[in-house]
Please model this.
Amino acid sequence: MSRRLALALLSIALASHVLAEDPPPQPTPQKRSWFSRMLHPFQSSPVPTYKDARLRGLALELKLSPQPVKLSEVRQLEVKITITNVSKKAVALEFPTDQRIEIHLKNSSDTVLTTWSDNHAFDPKPGTILINPGEHIFYPETIATRELTPNKVFVVEVFFPQYPELRIRQKFLTAQ
Model:
């Protein structure tokens, strides 16, 4: 009986060590406790912490489609951004214009090839967005792929111009 218990404890200790080696997402999240990792081994990392206290509790998610990007078939890359409030308090975001997000299409050396706002007009009308706990805001946008070349890696970077800490990047591969 004690051998089984010792074996179970050893396997739990090894499993927690393996889970602790996952790379952290951007920005650096809070570390999960050993007990939390044991109870919820497949749960994603906690919410990232930001220097700006007004942004705490916000999580960004970026989805690109299609993957890989076939340049012969696709002229516009679909970029879907979701900002979710996972905290217990409402978060208010204030903007001086109609522009909420900015999308940059970059090459592997971080040179900006295409800027999403170049093809959009924004009114200088201030606005406030209130994100209640558990709610999310979804921004489905497209960006032109005319500057891309086949068989190379590119980066899509999405950020909120008023809140530079709210930033997310994703790499993708192009095909002919």
